[in-house]
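Run: sequence + NDP -> complex structure.
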Amino acid sequence: MTTYSWRNAPSAGYAVIGDPIGHSWSPLIQEAALAHAGLSGQYLAIQVPDLEFDSALKRLRECGYLGLNVTVPLKERAYRASQPDREARRFGVVNTLRLGDMVGTNTDAGGFLDSLQGVADEPGPVLILGAGGTSRALAKALQDAGWNVSIWNRTTERAERLVSDLGFPMTVPETPDPKGFRMILNTTSAALAGESLPIPWERADPSTLAYDVSYGSKMSSFLSEARDHGLRIRDGVEMLIAQAARSFEWWHGIEPDRAIMRKAVEHLRWT
Ligand code: NDP
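>> structure
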C-alpha cells in the first residue's frame, strides 16, 4: 500500500496518520465506502512521527484535508490538540478529527463494543495488556459495560497513570498472568515491532477469549500462542471495520455499508 510522509503528502480529503503506518488497512476500507456511497475524495495513509504531530497537522490543514483518523502513537496528542466532543471527553482519547473546526471524537470504544456482540456478551474480569491510547478508551468502555478491569503494561508507571486519570478502581498486576480472566485483551503495539508478550498461557482457562486489537495478513504471536493453548481467539478486523464505519458516519453524515468495508480487506486477513 502506498504511504506518504506528511512533508510531501499530496492534497486529499481524508487520511489516517500514525507511525508506523504501512500496516493500516483504513485506506482500503474508507475508499471502498466512499465509492459505494457515490462520494468523491481520496483517503491516504500518512506517516507522522510522534514529535512532528503539530507541524504535520498544520501542513495537512493547509493542504485542504477535511478529516483524519489517528493511530499509534498519536491518539493522546490528538486529544490535546483538538476540541474533544462528549464521546472523546468520556475516554480522554481522540482517534478521529474534523479539521475544519478541529473537533475530535472517539470511535474506537464504540467500534470495539460493536465487535464484542455475540462474542463476549456477558461481562466478567478482563485483563487489558497495554496502557496507550487504545487501552485508555477500551478500559473505560469495558468498565461502563460492567466488566471488572485489570491493566498490565510493560511500563508499570504508565498503567498507574492511566488508572489515576480514569478515576475508577482497576488492578495493576506486575505480570500478565491470564488466570481467572474471562477475556485477555491485547492493546499493545508489540506485534508492530515483531515482539511477543511474556504471557504464561498454560495458566489460562480454555473458555477465556484472547482478543488482539491488532490485525494483519499474519496471525499475531499473541493469538497463535493463545490458540495453541486451546483459547478462543479474535483479531482486530471487526473492530477496525466498526470504528471506521463510525468515523465515516461522523464525517459524512451517511451510514456506510459495513459489508462493503469488510469485503475491501477480507482477502488480506490471515483467517
Ligand atoms: P500507543 O502507542 O498509544 O500504545 C502502545 C502500547 O503498546 C503501550 O502500552 C506500550 O507500552 C505497548 N508496547 C509497545 N511495544 C511493546 C512491546 N514490545 N512489548 C510490550 N508492550 C509494548 O498505541 P495505540 O494504543 O494507539 O495502539 C495500539 C495498537 O492497537 C496498535 O497495534 C494499533 O494498530 C491497534 N489498534 C487497532 C484498532 C482496530 O480498529 N483494530 C484500533 C486502535 C488501535 P509502553 O507504555 O511500555 O511503551
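>> summary
The chain has a mean pLDDT of 96. The first strand starts at residue 4 and ends at 5.
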